[in-house]
Amino acid sequence: MDVALIAANFDRFLWGVWMTLNLTFLALLIGGIIAIPMAIARASNHRLWNPVIWGYTYVFRGTPLLVQTYLIYYGLGQFTVVRDSWLWDPILSSAWWCALIAFTLNTAAYTTELLRGAIIDTPKGEVEAAIATGHSYRSRMRRIILPSAFRRAIPAYSNEVIFMLHGSVVASTITLQDILGVGRWLNGRYYLAYEGFITAALLYFIIVFAITRVFRWIERRYLRHLTRRSEPTPSVELAPSPIR
């Protein structure tokens, strides 16, 4: 391991960390916003939107993220109508924007199904109590069902965040210098075998460790009411011995 060479190029790895986190969390933010109304439509079995959203989630969950990114970055440019549109020059001709679009659509599909399951699994007692107190459907969804679903979806969503972080390595295949891209650049420039990849793996490990700690704190804060409390051991009172 040439540690001195890694240290001399560590500023590039820091830029790769910024690129990776920027793409990952922007995609998670935008994808989460998109997923909320789609999850509501899926959970309510909307006659019009449910089959459309099901088809969308099926396609993006059933195909690899690498293929989706290639289709957007390389495929859309094959159409003249796309190249002549106003979206081409500022957005679709940029590798960063294409990666963000692919990541956002991918995580939105997974988050939609994740939230749909959490909405459907809302305890019936909470819903019945909201109906009994006069809440309308929108009021129940906004004040009762969605907050409860968000809390219960936290453990599963932490896995989606980590999977999205790992999937962001796809960005290195379309010329973006994320963490893995910098590692590949270092190995290619100096004819190395391990230094770049090991450094990239350690950086991903540190980021994932930080993410898991943050979500563990969030779970302790917002899922405290779902944890089973240990019942105190009942004290046994000894009966007084009879006087002989």
Please give the radius of gyration in angstroms. 25 Å
Strand content: under 5%
Q: Give the strand tally.
A: 0
Count of distinct structural domains: 1
Domain ABC transmembrane type-1: 17-215
Protein name: Amino acid ABC transporter permease
Subcellular location: Cell inner membrane; Cell membrane
GO molecular function, one term: transmembrane transporter activity
Summarize it.
By secondary structure, this protein is mainly alpha-helical. The protein is 73% helix and 0% strand. The protein has helices spanning 3-8, 10-43, 49-62, 65-75, 80-83, 88-92, 95-120, 124-132, 137-152, 154-167, 179-190, 195-222.
Structure overview:
By secondary structure, the chain is mostly helical. The chain has a single domain (3-121, 131-224), classed as MetI-like fold (Orthogonal Bundle), CATH 1.10.3720.10. Helices cover 73% and strands 0% of the residues. The chain contains twelve helices and no strands. Helix 2 (10-43) runs antiparallel to helix 3 (49-62), helix 2 runs antiparallel to helix 11 (179-190) and helix 11 packs antiparallel against helix 12. The chain is flat and about 70 Å long.
Which keywords apply here?
244 residues; mainly alpha; MetI-like fold; 12 helices; flat; MetI-like; transmembrane; membrane
Layout of helices and strands:
Elements: H1 3-8, H2 10-43, H3 49-62, H4 65-75, H5 80-83, H6 88-92, H7 95-120, H8 124-132, H9 137-152, H10 154-167, H11 179-190, H12 195-222
Transmembrane segments: 15-41, 53-74, 94-115, 161-180, 192-215
GO cellular component, one term: ATP-binding cassette (ABC) transporter complex
Keywords: Cell inner membrane, Cell membrane, Membrane, Transmembrane, Transmembrane helix, Transport
